[in-house]
Specification:
The structure holds two protein chains of two kinds.
Chain A lengths: L11 H11 L3 H21 L4 H17 L12 H32 L5 H6 L10 H16 L2 H12 L4 H7 L5 H26 L7 H8 L3 H5 L4
Chain B lengths: L2 H13 L15 H11 L5 H13 L4 H11 L1
Chain lengths: 231, 75
């Protein structure tokens, strides 16, 4: 069985730091400005934001963390940096969709003055405002990828990793194949899941430039930022 | 980071939406399905049956846990 990923451990120092931020301690906010704000900017630019967009969204991220008390939902279940970077990714996606809605609305209003463009837009599922658009996007992308994954390879992965079935037992079940064959199937299905997930995201949100590592961070140590604390 | 950890992260993420992804449902499979899974667990499934069972479990990941239990009993 693989060891549990780091996001499950309690990050006491980060949790205390977040509490200091929420308490408005100057020293904590100076550290936040020095360490976290550049990381937010770097993440936003890495995901395709222009300097001007990055500045605007950076303000939204800090407003969300502080004024809207998003930071209060951080439980220490993962590094604070992952939480903050994922909050930034979510805010960037929300910003992109808001911008697209505004462009679409102005286009529709220009094409057809008789109808109410905003009413029509309200019925469009994909562009409807969401509290956590990144979570929904990643969920849809992963479900798409899992649907396309090779069934046998996926079963091997689930039995091996999630159910702790030994590799040699899997070899026996699969007609006495070599362990290398089982390992290759696991590798193959993970590669396929990664490629299909990223392809789905790229097609759905062409302007959102997200890497596999950033996606994993959002699903793992940053999940609290887009889903709230685990129940 | 490795493939195992990647899948674990993704599964836990999806599990926040749908608890059945990891096959944690308590509901056992129907008798005919359980019989097929038992044959699979005994190593009696040929290539075609393996493919068929894998396809079935892809649609019903909640039954993977039953299969794993059957494999452990025979191991």
């Amino acid at each position: 069985m693989a060891s549990a990923p780091a996001e499950n451990s309690f990050h006491a120092a980060d949790f205390e730091f977040a509490q200091d931020l929420l308490a408005g301690e100057d020293r904590a906010w100076r550290r936040f400005d020095a360490e976290f704000v550049p990381a937010i900017a770097q993440r936003l630019r890495g995901m395709g934001a222009s300097d001007a967009d990055a500045d605007e969204v950076q303000g939204l991220v800090i407003e969300r963390l502080w004024t809207r008390q998003k930071l209060a939902s951080y439980t220490g279940n993962g590094p604070l940096m992952g939480f903050v970077r994922t909050t930034a990714s979510n805010a960037w996606l929300e910003y992109l969709r808001k911008h697209r809605r505004e462009v679409h609305a102005s286009t529709l209003a220009g094409e057809d003055d008789e109808g109410d463009a905003m009413d029509r837009l309200a019925g469009e599922k994909n562009d409807a405002p969401q509290e956590s658009p990144l979570a929904e996007l990643l969920r849809e992308a992963l479900k798409f990828a899992l649907d396309r994954a090779d069934a046998e390879a996926l079963l091997i992965m689930r039995l091996s990793l999630l159910q702790d079935i030994k590799q040699r037992d899997l070899c026996d079940l699969w007609g006495g194949v070599h362990e290398g064959t089982i390992s290759a199937k696991k590798k193959q299905v993970m590669t396929q899941i990664r490629d299909d997930t990223l392809a789905f995201v790229a097609e759905r949100e062409p302007t959102l430039q997200i890497t596999w590592q950033e996606l994993l961070e959002a699903c793992g140590e940053g999940a609290e930022a887009i889903l709230g604390p685990a129940g | 980071m490795n493939d195992d950890q990647d899948l674990l992260i993704l599964t836990r993420f999806l599990n926040r939406f749908d608890p059945d992804v990891e096959g944690r449902a308590a509901e056992p499979p129907p008798a005919d399905v359980a019989a097929r899974l038992d044959r699979f667990a005994a190593g009696e499934a040929d290539a075609a049956e393996r493919g068929s069972v894998a396809g079935l479990l892809k649609e019903h990941p909640e039954w993977v846990r039953y299969l794993a239990g059957a494999i452990r009993k025979r191991a």
